[in-house]
Amino acid sequence: MRLSHRVPELGALELLLAVVRLGSVGRAAAELGVSQPAASTRIRSMERQIGMALLDRSPSGSRPTEAGALVAEWALQVIEAARALDAGLGALREHRDGRLRVVASLTVAEYLMPGWLLALHEARPGTAVTLRVANSATVAEQVLAGQADLGFVEGATAPTGLGCAVIATDRLLVAVAPRHPWARRRGEVTARELAATPLILREQGSGTREVLDQALSEYGGTAKPLLELASTTALKAAAASGAGPVVVSELAVADEVTTGRLVAVPVAGLDLRRPLRAVWPTGQRPAGPARHLLSLTRQPSPGPAAGG
């Protein structure tokens, strides 16, 4: 149902109510912060719109006509309903701006997200953050389905149907236990040799696996994995036990390589860099705490650098 063109706007109704309550157009104008001529013009315009006089004017002030009193009574109901609507919208905005649903790939969630969320808490202490961890394919699915306000993925290509921004560059590293033959060899491992070797790998659908498969595609792709694991801790533990080489983010094995529990193995002629991306539904640029978190990802991290 469309409203009649004779229904005044909310501002005009507020002015009428102020005149009725204060008994003067001038006092009503002062209360609402407008000039008296502007208020008088607005009242006359409303009277023409409705088609009848609403005020009896005299040197001592203004009082409502019989019709004006009825219109003021109805106007009060409209204004009260508008205020209730405004309060409800404010509550919705406050609820929206007080929560943030994030889903992130394993590397981002474990090694970058803690610092970002700490900074977000300091900047917006009232924000309730829910963080879920999934592989990059699942992250994209959840953001597309509206189950998260912001997602973080790692992979060679941007997910289809999502807006995105590259926030950092990560590098995959081949690492082995100190007693593994690759830890003691003088020359670099070749890309073809890496492709032919059973490795400890992340599962299909992870950004790590996608980047490695793409990098080794011209050598026939990766061999059948020695192990497929969805946990970074499990991947590193398997490699450290001597089970075989592991391919993970350099962020994930920085401590193990520094302490000697794992040895980084250089691979000749293979680019294992990958972008880390923030993703969101197309056409819905992040707002509120999601936008704030996105801005924090562009600042230097206090932890290991994500460059490479």
Give structural notes.
The chain has 308 residues and is α/β, with parallel strands linked by helices. The chain folds into 2 domains: 10-96, Arc Repressor Mutant, subunit A, CATH 1.10.10; 99-297, D-Maltodextrin-Binding Protein, domain 2. Helices cover 45% and strands 21% of the residues. It contains 13 helices and 13 strands. It has helices spanning 10-22, 25-32, 36-50, 66-97, 106-111, 113-123, 136-144, 181-184, 191-196, 207-215, 232-240, 254-259, 288-297; strands spanning 55-58, 61-64, 99-104, 128-133, 150-154, 162-176, 189-190, 200-201, 227-228, 246-249, 263-265, 267-268, 273-281. The strands form 4 sheets. Strands 3, 4, 5, 6, 10, 11 and 13 form a 7-stranded mixed sheet that branches. A two-stranded antiparallel ribbon has the order 1-2. A two-stranded parallel sheet has the order 7-12. Helix 10 links the parallel strand 8 and strand 9 (227-228). Helix 1 (10-22) crosses helix 2. The protein starts with 9 loop residues before the first helix and ends in an 11-residue tail after the last helix. Mean pLDDT is 88; it is low at 301-308.
Question: What is this entry, summarized?
Answer:
Belongs to the LysR transcriptional regulatory family. This protein has 308 residues and is α/β, with parallel strands linked by helices.
